[in-house]
Amino acid sequence: MRSKDEAVSLLDVSTYLPENRVPAEWYAQYAEDDGLRDSPMFAPPEYRHHSAVDESNVDMIVRATDGLVARHGRGVLDDVDILLTHSQMPDLPIVGAGGETAARLGMKPRWIVDVHNGGCAAFVYMINLARQLLWSGAGRTAMIAVAVNAAGKIFEQDQVRKLAQASVPGDGAAVGLVTLSDRSPVLDIECRFFGENARDMTLDTDPPRKWWEAGPGQGYVGFNEAKIMKVLSRGNRQVPQVVHAVCERIGVKPTDLDLLVTNQPNRLLLRNWAEALELPRERHRDTFGRCGNLFAVGIPANLEAAIDDGQIDTGDVVMMAGFAHAGDFAGAAAIQWGGRPQ
């Protein structure tokens, strides 16, 4: 057992976006009026990336690790003691992605944990899990991996792509390297669960059936006007709350954060979060216009975009925050960025 005073750092992140870059016009040619066409929840991005039908979560995670290996050397994977994976839509219904990921990357971690919950804020949740495991003595290095693949699978179905919700999702993967180190320390984390909201996120079909039952109708996310209002209200409230909780404990005002990166469900919530935290738009990084809603990949993708562009400097305080599904989880994590290896 290690002391919780020992620093745990998010050393680096690396992302992957599928080759198929889909413009808004692709969706528009199929769109039909489903009653939710004008909802701000589904205002389409200019572009998003769709995974190929035969491109799996593990395929994308493996490709996302290329950046880590290029910067840290092949030995960085040999040193991983803990592997945490999150798959939006598992390719194998019963087996998670962790075991295959380790095998494909030639890793021999002491711990493999598939984290199904966490949704769009899974990256924050997994940093917290990694930190707790490292403090417990489970090892010195963890790799967290998230992959989302519904855009090129669920939302390209010929019945589903007519719906307003099909215009927003994007696919991709990201990995993060978490280790016992003071290079880019995790300053604090807040995770909150709201189990009473969990059943508001459903996979529906027309005509109705259980998701595992054979039958007509293609699966889609069950949205209606009332549910959309609940999700927007929860998101507007939960993300600023967890950010404020972390800021209070680390002694930094939200207005003094050097950068905020969040999940990116739609432009409305992105705008509302920046306004609620009184941050200028340039200090709230997003890639929504070119990637759409990246779900769990949104936070690490936006963080890497900011790193690559030189938007954050060594010593900057970066806040990662998001909420999941219909509002059953929200989390925020602050790091002090230490820079990438030269």
What report would you give on this structure?
With 342 residues, this protein is of the alpha/beta class. Helices cover 28% and strands 23% of the residues. The strands form four sheets. It has a five-stranded mixed β-sheet with strand order 1-7-6-4-5, sandwiched between helices. Helix 2 packs across helix 5 and helix 7 runs parallel beside helix 8. The longest helix has 26 residues. It is globular and about 55 Å long. The two termini are 32 Å apart. The model has no long low-confidence stretch (mean pLDDT 95).
Straight-line distance between termini: 32 Å
**Helix-strand topology string:** EEHEHHHEHEHEEEEEHEHEHHEE
Q: Give the overall average pLDDT.
A: 95
Task: Supply the number of helical segments.
Answer: 10
Which assembly state applies to the chains in this document? single chain
Topology (SSEs and partners):
Elements: E1 8-16, E2 20-23, H1 24-28, E3 47-50, H2 57-64, H3 66-72, H4 75-78, E4 82-87, H5 98-104, E5 111-114, H6 122-136, E6 141-148, E7 172-180, E8 186-193, E9 203-204, E10 220-221, H7 225-250, E11 259-262, H8 267-276, E12 284-285, H9 288-291, H10 298-308, E13 317-324, E14 329-336
Parallel strand pairs: 4-5, 4-6, 11-12, 11-13
Antiparallel strand pairs: 1-7, 2-3, 6-7, 8-14, 9-10, 13-14
